[in-house]
Amino acid sequence: MSETSLLLKSYYEALYERLDARKELLAARIGEILAEEIKKRGFEDFNKEKYAAYRDACLAFVDERIEAYNPIGIQYVYDRRNSAEVIELELQLNWYDSRDEFAALVEAARGRAQTDMTDERLQPLTNELIEEVGAFPDKSIISAYESEPGLNKLPDYIVARTIEEIIL
After folding, report:
1. Ramachandran angles phi, psi of 47, nearest 5°
2. What is the pLDDT of residues 5-18, one digit of tens each?
3. Spatial separation of the C-alpha atoms in residues 142 and 96, rounded to whole Å
4. How many CB atoms lie within 10 A of CB 62?
5. Are 101 and 134 in contact (CB under 8 A)?
6. Better pLDDT: 117 or 3
7. What φ, ψ does residue 80 adopt, rounded to 5°?
8. 115-146: per-residue pLDDT in tens?
9. Does the reported pTM lie above 0.90?
10. Is the distance from CB of 141 to CB of 95 less than 8 angstroms?
11. Which helix (H) or strand (E) holds 21?
């Protein structure tokens, strides 16, 4: 495994650990941000049931994102045979385009990677990487939503904003 791949693996593991440990905080903050965004955008017809449904969707997306960073499941990212197929599938399923953000993540990791990285050196580099780039693909989600807000994008957006607040 290359030094860049090792740092990216550490990046995903750190995100998994941070988010998994802060699930309750994420859930509490999601409710606050969701209420703020509904009011800010003037989304109509948001009664208690609709609000609860969107909040539940956000919570499900949190679980999905945490599992996406799970070190056991993230291995498919490093399987070169399937990585192009995985990226293409992601682009088809998502309403946002995260290719540039992923390229920036890889470039930032490449710029930090060092030969013979020890565990003691890997952790600070991982923390620096998270501070610089945040949690992939949050920047793509946030910018796409802010350029064209919509109810169908709201759960992803709320989760992305919440994660960005919580991971640092």
Report:
1. -85, -175
2. 999 999 999 999 99
3. 9
4. 22
5. no
6. 3
7. -60, -30
8. 888 888 999 999 999 999 999 999 999 999 99
9. no
10. no
11. helix 3-21
Q: Name every residue whose Cβ is closer than 8 Å to that of residue 140 and which is 6 or more positions away in sequence.
A: 96, 97, 98, 100, 101
Selection from 141, 136, 139, 157 nearest residue 15 by Cα: 136
- CA atoms of 93 and 51, how far apart (whole Å): 24
Contact 12, 71 (CB under 8 A): yes
Residue 66 in tokens = 């945490």
Annotated domain spans of the chain: 3-166
The structure tokens 């919570």 sit at 59
One-letter amino acid identity for 127? N
Q: Which two tokens stand for residue 37?
A: 């965004």
What's the CA dihedral at 11, 13, 17, 23 to 10 degrees? 80
Phi-psi region of 51 (alpha: psi -120 to 50; beta: other; left: phi over 0): alpha
Separation of alpha carbons 20 and 26, rounded Å: 9
Q: What is the b/e burial string over 93-116, where b = at least 16 CB atoms within 10 angstroms of the residue's CB? A: eeebebeebbeebbebbeebbeee
How many CB atoms lie under 10 A from the CB of residue 11? 25
- For the chain, give the mean pLDDT: 89
